[in-house]
Amino acid sequence: MFDISIYDKMSLNDRYDTMLTSLEGLISGDESDLTKLCNAAALINALISDLNWCGFYIYSNNELVLGPFQGMPACTKIKVEAGVCGKAASTKETIVVEDVHSFEGHIACDSASNSELVVPIVKDDNLIGVLDLDSFKVGRFSNSEKIYLEKAVEVLNKYINWEHIISAF
User: Fold this and answer.
1) Membrane spanning segments where (predicted)?
2) Which residues contact 105 (CB under 8 A, 6 or more apart)?
3) What does residue 23 show for φ and ψ, rounded to 5 degrees?
4) Does 112 fall in a domain?
């Protein structure tokens, strides 16, 4: 059983450190890789405050295809280089956008989104997809979230066989 209340009184760094440990525990088993990715989206969504969307887009056939997520229904396909997700995918660099309404070419899947953080998932220099987080708060994401979510992607790369995920898309 998962009890989120254990995180309530932790400092932000302790909370995020524990999130990484919990993530590793959730996905290090023999479950399917898709199940691992579903649990990763749920855990991150539960432990990063003030989100209205958290999930994955998987790179397939030269575009990003919607994968496991938590939140409102989302865009099902995003062209590489389009929007924040596509830009992060094309540059293979994390992007933090304080106000998505000032980001040229922003794709509004959920009208409640005001800020965004996108971490590319890259393994052996190959683009796998992106981890995308949206918040209803302008300026929600700090360098702490950037650093810890990049570390979360490292944990995912350690335990997920991305070929199993990509073949499903």
Assistant:
1) none
2) 82, 83, 87
3) -60, -45
4) yes
